[in-house]
Amino acid sequence: MTDKHAFQAETKSLLRLMIHSLYSNKEIFLRELISNASDACDKLRFESISSPELMGDAELAVELIPDKDAGTLTVRDNGIGMSREDVIEHLGTIARSGTREFMSKLSGDQARDAQLIGQFGVGFYSAFIVADKVTVRTRRADAAEAVDWTSDGEGEFEVAVVDKSGRGTEVVLHLREDDKEFLEPARLSTLVRRYSDHIGLPIRLRNDKGELDTINQARAFWTRPKSELKDQDYQSFYKHLSHDFDDAVSWAHHRVEGTLEYTSLLYIPKRAPFDLWNREAHHGLQLYVKRVFIMDKAAELLPNYLRFVRGLVDTADLPLNVSREILQGSRTTEKIKAALVKRVFDLLEDLADNKPEEYAQFWQTFGGVLKEGLVEDPANQSRIARLLRAPSTKEPEGARVKLADYVSRMPEAQKSIYYLTADSLAAAQSSPHLEGFAKRGYEVLLLVERIDEWVVAHLQEFEGKPLKSVAQGSAELEDTVETAAQAQAESAFKDVLERVKQKLDTRVQEVRLSRRLTESPACLVAPDFGMSRRLEKMLSMAGENMPASKPILELNGEHPLVARLRECNDEALFEDLSELLFGQAQLAEGGQLDDPASFVRRLNRLVLGQAPSGRIIV
Ligand code: ADP
Ligand code: MG
Fold first, then answer.
1. How far is the CA of 270 from the centre of ligand 1 (A)?
2. Global pTM?
3. CATH classification (class only), 481-618
4. Running DSSP on this structure, what letter comes out for residue 280?
5. Any idea where the domains of the chain sit in the sequence?
6. What is the pLDDT of residue 483?
7. If we measure between CA atoms, which residue out of 434, 408, 439 comes closest to residue 419?
8. Which residues of the chain fall below pLDDT 50?
9. Strand, coil or helix: what is 296?
């Protein structure tokens, strides 16, 4: 009995794309099929923990069988196999989650695109790059019947029930005329050594004499002694594990024996995975128990803020039937996790100290994730703070300062670490709040990521120096020399400030003379305690229902516009000026005007020097 099925539309375009645009990287099909065979063996090993009868006697292995007469290459495994439903679901009609995502990431650069295939769970289809017909014959370990899946990759596939003696899967590739090179044993073993050497089970190639030669190391990579492994080996295992096409930045391979027994292999990647910021996506390490693959993306082994770390843990201290629930409550997991966190910090500190440029690149890519740790992991906060990097008013464009350097170059009079949060670097750099600090030679950190609002709410000090916002509170910038003059100015402006407050009425909490402005006439600041203005804005935009707090309007007594206020006797003009100062302070912090139309009218009146009652011709 044979039935025909149509490929789902996206699968169809994916196939077309594979066949026609990845021809210069054909060879990756072998890596993908071997990786599937190895996954299938892992799954069998795992299922046989609860159903030991599934395993049988045969050693798990992958075989490559080139047949020159038939023009076929067969990739065979004795892993878990597939049922009829599995075949239809995994190799055909139902859109695999990765398909659309994969297509949207394609760049047209063949080498790069070829590398993406495994990452998105569409590797099987790469078979059609070299084959004009593919037959998959498979029997699930616990099923009586086997199935054949056949397709020419054009639009349909056929599924038939067949006989097959052993469990597992055989993928038969009918090679295209131009791709017969993949029948050559020498070519195949080179490819296996290049791409699949680290797979933990034997890969056997049937040679011209009909014998099977094991052509890879066939040992779980991480069980091999460090002394035997070269950088290049670590990199190639990294690519296998992560499906990344770039090298890893660094790694740590540890074998621990004693009260706990485990091996860990952790990598810091160069590039962010496409779903780093996707809240639904799972991240985490692979977990093995005594070499048996247990689960992918075990989030319990590292905190969420280290989700960019790739790698694995293989332990003898967890039961083979460990589930996510057990992992969550386990003391063993907690202990391993604490040790892994330290290793990641060691890796990052080492990178920061010894390869600052690579660290800068790392920070650019993953700094936003690592910062979450400042909020979520108080116990490690000071260690993470040392890894923090931020743009500042004293750093050139694109560069970032570390807190230790910031502190070491603070002028003697400066007591706090100052920062400004803003929506963009440009907005931060032109903020009036910086003026007084610049004049005094105080460096200000420019924090422009959304998470920074939470970071500064949690990171209160660094090496004994408090962190303070330049846009909040009174900004302790009093210099002794200025105090007398300031007191004088304050009394001179007392009435004016009160009048401005009356005009703006309920919209501001207070109007006062500023110590932080030197050039701009006005700015808004938040009260000493409580939320920053930006955090408030972010929360209300996120739909958080909360009473808006009122800002403090600060005026620069030395600015001509403010001086003009003092001399102004015309009530209407005074109102125009007050509104204008308030409005521009709102604009300067990237805010919106309450009533843009009347702001514009007032502005035009003042520019044209017209009396407020006069008619405006615009
Ligand atoms: P991925 O391996 O990322 O899931 P693939 O396109 O490579 O994506 O494979 C699709 C699915 O087909 C696999 O997830 C698996 O369920 C099934 N499959 C492919 N090859 C085999 C095999 N040799 N044995 C068992 N199942 C397989
Ligand atoms: Mg695969």
1. 27
2. 0.80
3. mainly alpha
4. T
5. 2-219, 226-360, 389-479, 481-618
6. 63
7. 434
8. 480, 615-618
9. strand
